[in-house]
Task: structure prediction
Amino acid sequence: MIVSHGVIWVAVSQGLSRVRVIYVDRTLRPQVVGLGEPMVEFCANETGRLGRVEAFKRGWGGDTSNFAVAAARTGSRAAHMCRLGGDEFGRSFTELWAREGMDTSRVVVDPEGWTAIYIISLVEGGGHDFTYYRAGSAASRYNVGDLDEEYVASAEGLPHERHQPGG
Result:
């Protein structure tokens, strides 16, 4: 049990590949619900072409996830809705969100899917380039059947992403 920002949360494990966090008091609606694709980030530790870089730092990315985490850190009741792969990277997101006290009860975990990643290369002169591996990811298969419209309607804010399917 976690007490965060005056809200009591309970972590419930379901199988080996899934951890979900749910509100104990369902009358408390989220203030912010992020709806979008979280992606694991790998940022090069040195400047140069990706094929020559030897080390990367792993982080968590995705605009809506970042926004929801920031909202939770300011004391807002935050949640995230998405489809994650049942892989280690998907689990790392649910663990991150649990540590931040976020509601992940509407996260769909696809045991056969994988979580998208992106890689940041550092360019001479201080710039950077992004390389994405997301087509076919679990999040690219999020569909209208995964969406809890009543839950979304109960939120005070809904940051979301708009991408081409599978892109």
Notes: The first strand starts at residue 2 and ends at 4. The mean pLDDT is 81. Residues 2-154 form a domain with the UDP-N-acetylmuramoyl-L-alanine:D-glutamate ligase fold (CATH 3.40.1190.20). The first helix runs from residue 63 to 73.
